[in-house]
Amino acid sequence: MTPGLGFERVAAEFVARLGPVRLRTLAQRIAKGWPRPAIPESVPVPGFADAARAVLAAQQAAAIPNGEAAAYLRGVADGYAQHAEKVHVESVWSGPSSHPVPVRATAQVLVEVVEEASHELLMMTYSARPYAPVLDALNGAVKRGVAVTVVVETLQGAGSALGGLEPAAAFASVKGLQLWHWPSGGRAEQGAKMHAKLAVADRRVLLVSSANLTQSGVSRNIEAGLLVHGGTAPVRAAEHVAELRAAGVLERLR
């Protein structure tokens, strides 16, 4: 079966965003001949409805019968599941290198993660300052259609721990990027901070690090992190933040 490039693309985007289990669910609904308007609303998971509508529209545009479409989607889900089981983990460091022990540099890895994203990129940082290589990569991601979300701390949320400009100001040159924050009024305990530092590309690559998105954090300080390709960790990280956004714990920063 040759489903067509449009259908192939949206199927790949669906499984990368929502995982093989939900793609199999969509395939089941299609195979059973569910009414088309009912399918997108049948799974109460953030992002399912929009992704399902895109798949159904591509199927209709390519005139693919339900049986063939469902079979292809199951194949994509199975292939993705098998690939996701292969997990590769590397250590990532900022600061001075030790020549006898080769390690990946935080600055380069962070840029690579941004450049790997094809449709979705999530970043979180406590402090932030303009860092040209990352900003260039983020602008490139937005231009190729990647939905870029960055969660930052605010000066109000940090109290006296941060000074200078708002961390969000570091991203002012990236048009089309969405900024989110954890409102101070929604924090159960006084002094709680939005202290996470991570980057997730397409829910398949995850960088977790002690490094803030600053020149010092990604290059000068001694900072440590892990780069994870595959497995459930990238998916779970992105899903957790998506749920925090959906629940109103995190809010858009205007």
Give an account of the 3D structure.
This protein is an alpha/beta fold and 254 residues long. It has 2 domains: 5-84, no CATH class; 88-252, Endonuclease Chain A (Endonuclease, Chain A). The protein has 9 helices and 9 strands. It has helices at 5-18, 20-31, 48-61, 66-84, 106-116, 132-143, 155-158, 215-220, 233-246, and strands at residues 88-94, 104-105, 120-125, 147-152, 178-181, 198-201, 205-209, 223-229, 251-252. It has a 9-stranded mixed beta sheet, with helices on both faces. Helix 1 packs antiparallel against helix 3, helix 1 packs across helix 4 (66-84) and helix 5 (106-116) runs parallel beside helix 6. The longest helix has 19 residues, at 66-84. It is globular, with a radius of gyration of 20 Å. The model has no long low-confidence stretch (mean pLDDT 91).
Strand and helix map with partners:
Layout: H1 5-18, H2 20-31, H3 48-61, H4 66-84, E1 88-94, E2 104-105, H5 106-116, E3 120-125, H6 132-143, E4 147-152, H7 155-158, E5 178-181, E6 198-201, E7 205-209, H8 215-220, E8 223-229, H9 233-246, E9 251-252
Parallel strand pairs: 1-2, 3-4, 4-5
Antiparallel strand pairs: 1-8, 3-6, 5-9, 6-7, 7-8
Helix pairs in contact: 1-2, 1-3, 1-4, 2-4, 5-6
